[in-house]
User: Which sequence fits this backbone?
């Protein structure tokens, strides 16, 4: 090989390395430019702040006692781009000091709806036999935390539910 | 990647062959350059449309009740939603332009000639698919503009002799453009057309690889100098794609996606106007009127042009590719370009028949403009009007009966001056005219 050939080979090699770097640089830049908005929008639900809770009437406060009772009420909410006005069910208990506890009606284990067993004086979730006391604490079974609940307040004899809280929090 | 014989990788041993190796590690004629980047730019834009379209579809509801609200949701609530939608919106226009230029380049170079006839035919089919994507996607935001453009666009199908009425119903899915049409267009846009696009694009690419890039016209017989496709030509391709994507970002940043009011099928004042890339056809139909000539312009002419494009490489079988030696081909290309550009220009400057009946400056026009300002500033992102919008701030359904114009002006441009607890940002960037229009609209809400 003559020196000229060798020099040519070096030039070709440098040229190739330059184009290779340029290709991968451009490919990375283009992927980022298009990928960031696409991924950002895809992951958007994770960054969306929770909807501000509103006080919603559950029913006349005096209809609830120390025996847990399932309350049905019309619950307007806003999901995505839709205003939903659906029926909602929550368990309501008034404890000894007269405070109202409003429980979300899904078991804290895997979200099955549970029910009150008056004879056993406990909430039973039929899916995996999780049981809760009337105050929401776990008695037995797999549930990892007490029942989830909503803030409550009574105004002019009407019980209202507010922000959602995880059980035990 | 290094030169010379390579040991097959783990995956290559299992799948056989070199992964993309044949496609990437090939040589192309040395004269392959900027004009040849249009094909890969088309592919890049298609990828942009697909990935942005997938995430847009995750936040879209194809019903007349919710389509417009879901678009508002994308613009107001989805992280980088306006960028996503801007890329998709401007990407569709860019795609039409780039595909057109790509086709023109191939035609002028005579690259459709043997052995690349089928490459060209697949390309013509892809062009039609891109136009079908543009037409069906246009309806989806369910705005006045998109609704009425689709009413007119589909109505054209109805002028086909004998089977027009039947064809119109097949296209619309029902007699009028409505909920069935919207779902139909959505399904065509996101399911049918991509299913056709992918195999055709793969066939097109495979044929480009199989027959390689055509050398420069007149350069076929000489001993060819070549260059590598990867990374030399591909780096140039991506460079052009980068310029295009930066233009899309620029358009999104400067103009965004034009805001429009919700579709109103009962509207009697709206003047439909298609998107710019269908304007030439819209304009053409003005010259073809009456029972005899209308079908000629609507059906015969487009069919003949499309058919001619398809069979072009079968008719024009001379091997001569130099533009100077193909005067008729060059003349017809020039006529086509001038006609398309001319018709588009005429279509854009001539007011369509039936200009708005609401005279500019009238109270109705002010209220209509006010509604546009309301929509453009995403007021429904925080306020409910007649059951539509997000109930974050106060409902505005009856706002006109609660406040005076002066109070509304203060509430909009400086909410804290009226209510120190106000959570609403100050909209003090509105022009006086827009603020006046917005207040006029709000005062109609009683």
Assistant:
């Amino acid at each position: 090989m003559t020196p000229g050939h060798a020099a040519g080979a070096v030039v070709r090699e440098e040229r190739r390395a330059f184009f290779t770097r340029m290709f991968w640089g451009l490919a990375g830049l283009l992927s980022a430019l298009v990928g960031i908005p696409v991924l950002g929008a895809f992951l958007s639900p994770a960054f969306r702040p929770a909807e501000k809770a509103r006080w919603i009437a559950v029913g006349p406060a005096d209809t609830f006692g120390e025996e847990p009772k399932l309350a049905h009420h019309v619950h307007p909410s806003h999901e995505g781009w839709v205003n939903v006005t659906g029926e909602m069910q929550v368990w309501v208990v008034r404890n000894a000091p007269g405070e109202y506890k409003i429980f979300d009606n899904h078991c804290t284990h895997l979200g099955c709806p549970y029910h009150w067993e008056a004879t056993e004086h406990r909430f039973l979730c039929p899916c995996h036999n999780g049981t809760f006391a009337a105050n929401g604490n776990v008695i037995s079974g797999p549930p990892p935390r007490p029942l989830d609940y909503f803030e409550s307040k009574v105004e002019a004899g009407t019980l209202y539910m507010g922000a959602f809280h995880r059980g035990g929090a | 990647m290094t030169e010379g014989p390579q040991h097959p990788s783990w995956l290559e041993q299992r799948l056989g062959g070199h992964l993309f190796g044949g496609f990437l590690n090939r040589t192309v004629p040395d004269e392959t350059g900027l004009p040849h980047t249009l094909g890969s730019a088309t592919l890049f834009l298609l990828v942009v449309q697909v990935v942005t379209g997938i995430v847009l579809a995750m936040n879209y509801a194809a019903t007349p009740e919710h389509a417009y609200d879901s678009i508002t949701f994308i613009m107001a609530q989805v992280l980088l939603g306006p960028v996503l939608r801007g890329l998709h919106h401007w990407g569709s226009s860019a795609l039409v332009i780039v595909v057109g230029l790509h086709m023109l380049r191939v035609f002028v170079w005579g690259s459709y000639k043997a052995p690349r006839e089928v490459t060209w035919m697949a390309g013509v089919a892809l062009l039609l698919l891109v136009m079908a994507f543009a037409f069906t996607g246009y309806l989806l935001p369910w705005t006045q503009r998109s609704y009425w453009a689709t009413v007119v666009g589909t109505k054209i199908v109805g002028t086909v002799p004998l089977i027009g009425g039947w064809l119109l119903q097949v296209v619309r899915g029902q007699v009028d453009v409505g909920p069935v049409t919207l779902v139909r267009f959505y399904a065509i846009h996101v399911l049918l057309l991509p299913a056709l696009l992918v195999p055709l694009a793969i066939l097109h690419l495979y044929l480009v690889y199989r027959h390689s890039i055509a050398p420069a016209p007149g350069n076929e017989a000489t001993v060819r100098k070549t260059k590598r496709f990867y990374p030399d030509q591909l780096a140039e391709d991506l460079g052009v794609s980068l310029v295009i994507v930066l233009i899309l970002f620029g358009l999104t940043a400067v103009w965004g996606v034009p805001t429009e009011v919700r579709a109103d099928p009962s509207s009697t004042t709206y003047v439909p106007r298609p998107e710019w890339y269908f304007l030439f056809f819209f304009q053409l139909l003005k010259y073809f009127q009456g029972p005899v000539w209308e079908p000629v312009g609507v059906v015969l002419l487009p069919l003949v042009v499309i058919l001619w494009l398809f069979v072009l490489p079968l008719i024009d079988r001379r091997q001569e590719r130099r533009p100077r030696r193909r005067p008729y081909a060059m003349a017809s290309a020039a006529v086509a370009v001038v006609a398309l550009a001319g018709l588009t220009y005429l279509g854009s400057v001539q007011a369509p028949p039936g200009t708005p009946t609401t005279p500019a400056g009238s109270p109705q026009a002010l209220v209509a403009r006010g509604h546009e300002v309301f929509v453009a500033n995403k007021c429904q992102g925080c306020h409910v009007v007649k059951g539509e919008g997000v109930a974050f701030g106060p409902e505005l359904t009856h706002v006109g009966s609660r406040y005076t114009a002066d109070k509304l002006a203060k509430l909009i441009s400086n909410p804290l001056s009226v209510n120190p607890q106000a959570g609403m940002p100050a909209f003090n960037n509105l022009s006086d005219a827009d603020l006046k229009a917005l207040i006029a609209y709000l005062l109609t809400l009683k």
Q: What stands out?
A: Residues 67 and 119 of chain A are 11 Å apart (CA to CA). The mean pLDDT of chain A is 90.
